[in-house]
Amino acid sequence: MHARRPLIRSMLAATLALASSVAFAHPKLVSSTPADKAEVIAPQKIELQFSENLLTQFSGANLVMTGMPGMADHAPMKVAAKVSGSDDPKAMVITPVRALAPGSYRVDWRAVSSDTHPITGNIAFTVK
Ligand SMILES: [Cu+2]
User: What is the mean pLDDT of the chain?
Assistant: First the structure.
């Protein structure tokens, strides 16, 4: 019985090591411009910086307008924008087709890295 303990312990260690290396491969949002919850003048582009290189063909984002000054209960409205990679393989760039009107916005992103698991998240910002 006691003789099996070291084996179980080493199997557990191997499992934990594997789990942490897999988790490490998932892209995490490191920073964004505008920053989450920032209030800014209309940005010409929104840049998301991730912790891993992205597979651009599987990654993407939606830009949604969530509020307008003086308008209660603004339904989330998708805003036309072009999503692309960048020279930096860890970055995603969202370029609105037209200048963003004052209001609140949310970027729903989907990032896929080498392990192919899609990770999603969002940031929000306000255009003054
Ligand atoms: Cu994964």
Answer: 89
User: What are the CA-CA distances from residue 58 to residues 1, 73, 80, 88 (Å)?
Assistant: 49, 33, 19, 16
76-to-13, 26, 46, 99, 128 alpha-carbon distances in Å? 46, 28, 18, 18, 18
Ligand 1 geometric centre to CA of 84 (Å) = 22
For residue 7, the model assigns a pLDDT of 58
CA of 23 to the centre of ligand 1 (A): 6
- Ligand 1 mean position to 33 CA, how many Å? 26
Q: How many CB atoms sit inside 10 A of residue 107's CB?
A: 24
pLDDT in tens, 36-50: 999 999 999 999 999
The total number of structural domains that make up the chain:
1
Q: Tell me, yes or no, whether 6 lies in a domain.
A: no
| Domain of residue 106, residue span | 26-127
* CATH at 117: 2.60.40.1220
